Known about the structure:
27% of the residues lie in helices and 29% in strands. The protein has helices at residues 3-41, 56-62, 141-146, 185-195, and strands at residues 45-48, 51-54, 66-72, 77-83, 105-107, 118-122, 149-154, 157-169, 213-220, 223-234. The strands form two sheets. The protein has an eight-stranded mixed beta barrel with strand order 3-4-5-6-9-10-8-7. The chain has a two-stranded antiparallel ribbon with strand order 1-2. The protein is globular.
Amino acid sequence: MNNKIRITIRILAVIVIILSLYYIIMTNAQYKKAETEYTDLNTYTEEVRDFIAVDYDSLSSINKDFIGWLYACDGNISYPVVQSHDNEEYLKTTFNGSRNIAGCIFADYRTPAFDNYQTIIYGHSMNDGSMFRRLVEYKDAEYCKRYPYFYIYTPDGRRKYEIFSVYKKSPVDAVLAYADIPEERPALVKKIEESSMYKISAPDNIVSGGGAVVTLITCDVSNDYYRIVVNGKRVE
């Protein structure tokens, strides 16, 4: 190997290192910016005993797509939820409208959120532990026992959900019903239950009607091809 080739390889190696460092620095900067934004948004909520008071009017004035507030994992997940005309807008757009890899927690546009029998909600699994990163912990049955409930707050009141199924699948294999056909609801719930990676002792009772089942979806950090899917039955 002559000197020219050696020098070229070293230059390329230095360029790769510089670009890698630049990417890490910029990514961390976006993490920090998103964390600050969502921490500030939490000032529009107030925890009163076991209830979260949400300033819906102020949040709606910031973002017209705001539809509710999600609280899970003892507050480690506490974010506004939006719904747009597609599933692309909020992949890299925050609640305040800033471009950021953290994006926003959003409901699938193909179903009327909290009116459809099954409501589907997406969020990124961020390396800094933010957004839906804690959902990945539900692969451990003990974590599910520790945090068996999540809550959604809307102007109509609080909805309490008990987790009854956790599974890992490719996006196309996730159990999702975009059409709400009452006769098919029992089969949908059964299929979701049977998909769970471990047995969950959740009661059979479920509040009927819109938003009876909420499905939270994020990427699996160990393999970005798969999704971690956490399903809750509405019990209040």
